[in-house]
């Protein structure tokens, strides 16, 4: 995790992405990065342009359009968030939004949804794996996450005339 967020120590994804002692981290680097991207898009998408006059800033000349840039960036972030949530599907999207964007704890989510203990942890890993694949960030760290096949990719069955 990059340390960009104030409450990162309390964030469930940050705790699960950190290696502790001799054990490796529960979440892979790709899954952690996918969670950060989802959270960043949620944060950017929730920003609104200021509609009041601001006396503390000097006018910007030629550097941007101010509120229009913020609105465009927020709209782009909202569109990326919508595509990501659609890619994850309705079964896991609420869980990812609660944990990654609304910073709820795993136990809190399990209690609210009446789930068994430690079930949110496994579903979070599955959802972040799907999200990492959607973002195109899988395969950067080799951890044996590729699709396993019982035959070679170029193997084709042959049919003999009978």
TrEMBL record:
Domain of life: Bacteria
Domain DUF6456: 12-136
The protein's name: DUF6456 domain-containing protein
Organism: Fulvimarina manganoxydans
Taxonomic lineage: Bacteria, Pseudomonadati, Pseudomonadota, Alphaproteobacteria, Hyphomicrobiales
């Amino acid at each position: 995790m990059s340390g960009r967020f104030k409450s990162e120590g309390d964030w469930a994804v940050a705790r699960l992405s950190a290696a502790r002692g001799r054990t490796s981290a529960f979440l892979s680097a790709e899954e952690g990065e996918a969670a950060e991207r989802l959270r960043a898009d949620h944060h950017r998408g929730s920003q609104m342009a200021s509609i009041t006059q601001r006396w503390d800033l000097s006018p910007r000349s030629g550097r941007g359009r101010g509120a229009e840039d913020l609105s465009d960036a927020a709209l782009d972030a909202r569109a990326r968030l919508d595509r990501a949530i659609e890619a994850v599907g309705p079964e896991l999207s609420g869980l990812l939004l609660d944990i990654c964007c609304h910073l709820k704890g795993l136990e809190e989510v399990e209690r609210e949804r009446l789930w068994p203990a430690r079930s949110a942890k496994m579903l979070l890993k599955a959802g972040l794996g799907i999200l990492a694949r959607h973002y195109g960030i899988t395969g950067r760290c080799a951890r044996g996450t590729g699709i396993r096949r019982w035959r070679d990719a170029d193997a084709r069955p042959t049919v003999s005339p009978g």
